[in-house]
User: What shape does this take?
Amino acid sequence: MKPLDKAPPTADPDVIAKKHTVVQGTDNAFKWAQKYHVKLAWGMDLMFNAEQMKKQNTDIPKLLQWFTPAQALRLLTHDNAELLALCGPRNPYQGKLGVIAGGALADLLLAEGDPTEDLNLLTDPEKNFRLIMKDGEIYKNTLGQ
Assistant: This one.
């Protein structure tokens, strides 16, 4: 896992300093949120970079600095969904999110292994994701192989 404050070697010194400030703030935010039981959401700003989108899960294990694998999975799924639901009319999803229940908008991933013990399973979805379902439609199923 690469350090959070690792800036490209060609980065301007001001960029490196700003990156360090952001990383320190992130560390404090996660520590304080845990201390005061603040619910968190997690996301990426890679939306418009297709190449980086393929690698987005490689950043998830960085959460292990503050959370157990099970806590991180809950943050990534249930907690994100619960906070998104608070958007009210701005919420693009109508129905229950972040739970596996009748009528819920659950997307499912079945992984080879136990991500509540090994969060690194998420970093290689081609290899480790055996079933991918979104909105009830199966996009990948290697369970019979």
